[in-house]
């Protein structure tokens, strides 16, 4: 397999990122699932899309009771709020708080800065190729997970 080294490099990157995520969870006394939920909610917020408990459950592969416990934990820590969805008052919307964003930025900001520094060494065309490759790998892995 000529491109076998790619999967090994992606795996090595995944191990490093998981290590960083574990350290973040440990420092902030969070469960691994709490961190995954916060990342998902932050991404959803950045995209301007409302997150609901049902969406979060599906995204994380959790049942209703586990999702409620997760949201309760995050809410009790001041990291997430629940409100009625403005478009459909029957639906609950989840929002990450400024405290959650600040906590994430304080820890992951240096990582983001380092990746941006690395990216500065590549042309915009090169970075477009990297983005396309990573997007397709993410989709392929997600499809495999869902099958």
Automatic annotation (TrEMBL):
Gene3D superfamilies, per database record: Winged helix-like DNA-binding domain superfamily/Winged helix DNA-binding domain
Coiled-coil annotated spans: none
Domain HTH marR-type: 3-139
Protein name: MarR family transcriptional regulator
Organism of derivation: Gordonia westfalica
